[in-house]
Design a protein that fits this description.
With about 190 residues, this protein is an alpha+beta fold. Helix content is about 30%, strand content about 20%. The longest helix has 29 residues. The model has no long low-confidence stretch (mean pLDDT about 90).
Length: about 190
C-alpha cells in the first residue's frame, strides 16, 4: 500500500496548526559587547537542526527582559522570512539566544500537529516551493507574515506524524554528528 502525505492527507493552513508565533520584528535592538546571543538569519540554515552561531551580536540582560514581545521556547521552529525565506531550524533546550528582525518562531499546537513533523514538512521541497512562490522583493526576497495562511501543511494522523518527524529528526541529528566528527578528523 502506497501512502503519499501530499495526495492522501487533508491540507491545513499553517496558522491553524500553531499555538503561538514569536514575532519581534519591527524595531532594531540595541546591542552590547556581551550577554545574551542575538542570532540573525545567517544562523538559521536548512543544513543543521539548530542555529549556528556565526556573526552573533549580544544584548544586555535588561534588553533581553524588556525589549521583546516574546522569546522562543525549546521545540519551537525558527522561520526566516527575509533574505532566504523559508529556512528553518529547531530551537534547542536550553535556549541561549533571542531573535529579533527577519525571522519568527513557530510554536506548534501539540493537539493538532507534532512539532518535529511540522519541522520536517517545512523543509520539504513542496513547502519550500510554496514559500518561494510567495516571495516578494526584487533585491532582498521576503516572505510576508500575511502569506502564512497560504502555506498548506498535509496533516496525517498523529502516529504517522510522529514516525515521519522522529525519523527526520534522528537522521538529521546523525548527519550533523557525522559532519562534526569529520571536521574533528580533518582538524
Amino acid at each position: 500500500m502506497k501512502f503519499n502525505i501530499w495526495e492522501d492527507c487533508p491540507k491545513v493552513p499553517i496558522t491553524e496548526l500553531l499555538s503561538f508565533i514569536v514575532d519581534n520584528r519591527g524595531k532594531t535592538v540595541p546591542t552590547a559587547n556581551d550577554g545574551w546571543k542575538l542570532i540573525a538569519t545567517n544562523c538559521v540554515t536548512n543544513n543543521t537542526l539548530f542555529p549556528v552561531y556565526e556573526k552573533v551580536r549580544y544584548l544586555t540582560q535588561e534588553t533581553y527582559e524588556t525589549w521583546f514581545r516574546a522569546h522562543p521556547m525549546p521545540g519551537d521552529i525558527l522561520f526566516v522570512n527575509k533574505g532566504t525565506p523559508g529556512r528553518v531550524c529547531m530551537v534547542p533546550d536550553p535556549v541561549d539566544f533571542c531573535i529579533a528582525q527577519d525571522m519568527i518562531a513557530l510554536r506548534a499546537d501539540d493537539k493538532k500537529i507534532y512539532n518535529k513533523y511540522l519541522f520536517a514538512v517545512l523543509r520539504s521541497r513542496e513547502i519550500q516551493q510554496q514559500i518561494y512562490n510567495t516571495n516578494v522583493g526584487d533585491v532582498i526576497p521576503h516572505f510576508k507574515k500575511q502569506f502564512m495562511d497560504q502555506l498548506l501543511i498535509p496533516v496525517p494522523d498523529r502516529k504517522i506524524q510522529e514516525k515521519i518527524g522522529n525519523l527526520y529528526y534522528q537522521l538529521s541529528y546523525k548527519v550533523e554528528l557525522n559532519k562534526k566528527i569529520n571536521e574533528n578528523l580533518v582538524a
